[in-house]
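Retro notes - structure team

What went well: the batch runner handled both jobs without manual restarts.
What didn't: labels got mixed up in the shared folder, which is why I'm recording both outputs here explicitly, each with its sequence directly above its tokens.

Job 1
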Amino acid sequence: MSEPLHTALSLAADGLPVLPLRAGKVPFGNCPVCATNACGGRPNMKTPGPCACPHPCHGWAAATADSGVIISSTWVRAWRDAAAVAYHPGGADLTVVDLDHPAAIAWARVTLPVTRIVPTTRGEHWLYQGAMQSTNAVRPGVDIKSTMAYARWLGPGTGTMTALPDVVRALAVRETPTVQPVAITVPARAGGGGCCHRTPTYLDRGIAMAEQRITAASSAVHATVYRTFLAVLSTHGRCGCLTDAHIARLFTAAQAKGESLRHCTDAWTNALASLGL
């Protein structure tokens, strides 16, 4: 029996949902049926819970405390190649505050209640009893891992675990960005006449699609925001159908992805200039 498998079975016996990790601290890839999430599996769902696939698929959602699944034939290869063991904190009613460097640890020591501490390669995991929403980068060097996330098992740690405090829950609350859209004036359509885009359904659908495109961006957010602004203005910018409310929706979507008001304003201004508006 491999060391990761032995550790996994021991943790599962204590009720901790576990999963194998390959080199690089990442889960094993999905099986052919679940590849690219074609099965519509757990990552597409909004509620935490186990994956229905018998293979260790869908990352954190594969975590289980069922020893029969852990030693099943579909998991054998993964355990043989596993470099480490991970667990689903939320599935065990736990929350891990992942402190990634000394500055983050220093902040925690003066801000958070004392609890069980597990040393990591670069910092510490502070474990609290209770589950909450997982959120990355709640402050520099600090991630929260609980529901719909996994944490690497690095040992039981030291100290007495305390109840999840409100100060940790509050870290996951994102303030709604204050949006100050740029007032624009666009020329009337050449030739005058009524606006062919004033049908509310057409315009609302276009703005909704633009919001979705920005929200779905997983990389190159700056470029995605600019291209989306450009697409909206190329369709609706010359006939005066855009209102401040429409622009505010686009800015809100961009700021929710981490764009600053200045970046939004610059992207909008550059898109106007590109189109000669």
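Job 2
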Amino acid sequence: MIPVAAPRLDETDIAAAVRVLRSGHLVQGPEVAAFEDEFAHLVDGNHCVAVNSGTSALWLTLLALGIGLGDEVIVPSFTFAGTAAAARLTGAAVVFADITPDTFCLDPDAVRAAITPRTAAVIPVHLFGHPAAMGDLAALAQQHQLALVEDAAQAHGATLNGRPVGTLGTAGCFSFYPTKNLQAIEGGLITTADPALARTLRLLRNQGMEERYHHEIVGTNGRMSDVSAAIARSQLRRLPALNARRRANATDLSERLANLPELSLPITAAGAGHVWHQYTVRISTTLGDRDTFAHNLQQAGIGTGVHYPVPLHRSPAYATATDLPHTDAAAAQVLSLPVHPGLTPAQIEDIARAVTTLARASECVA
């Protein structure tokens, strides 16, 4: 079986973790500080605040911006639940906006239509490693005096017009979950050019303290462990090479699948530096049911993923009557194929061959 994702820790990652375990400095210590300093090089020197998860990164950022009860936060429905949960956990109302069908990212026109006098923030998601339309979204945020918080959980190292994600809004939020382009077993990080915001975030993650037992504000425990930070530092050194491998795998797949009109292949918009967290295609109705196609690929030894089969606006926790046609269509049609850096050229060939064989067989049946 070729897995759709293959989290890997190499010997340098393991050695880094063991070194920390033997040091006695286990939480919010020198490894965390070093990781924050090193990650800053990836985001043009912005302030970096490490926390314990990507969801915490989003939640604490909204809290630090003063967003809460009475406010509205615009988010895509076609995303992982943490994006919306972070807003809801502040007490703010979540407002869902539709995506663009080509990149699966938040549609600036849909955001414009969703803005009300209560809107306080917009959270665009750089979905699957492709940067959102930050130029148009930043213009809207400036016009309406909104916070613009980037959900970059899937986009470590992605760029837009040469600028790294995490530097394109008020703040950027990253996740280091095991399947991400850069993993730390678990963890998150916030980037911002605003020193005052960074200081508030540091207080919030550590029970409101900068000095031990002196609580300046009400905070929480959002600290990153030094074990996670050590692994993240080790992985960060390999991130450019790992992303380059993902890009090469995506290019190879696209070339091999280019002659299948039944598949809509992922695109890279002008100016976007895609990092291919996922390689996500659309399955045409001419191939029948998406889930059946995925099952048949599984039987052929090719792992797949559906990100995401139930859009948030249709889930019990967030159900609304909002009409999001592009989101609903994507949820019914998308299928992610393996693109991770652990793939060999032979496995890329196997993936393309299995997809092509099944597509042609389905076409003949139809």
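One thing worth noting from job 2: Residues 117 and 207 are 32 Å apart (CA to CA).
We'll revisit the folder naming next retro.
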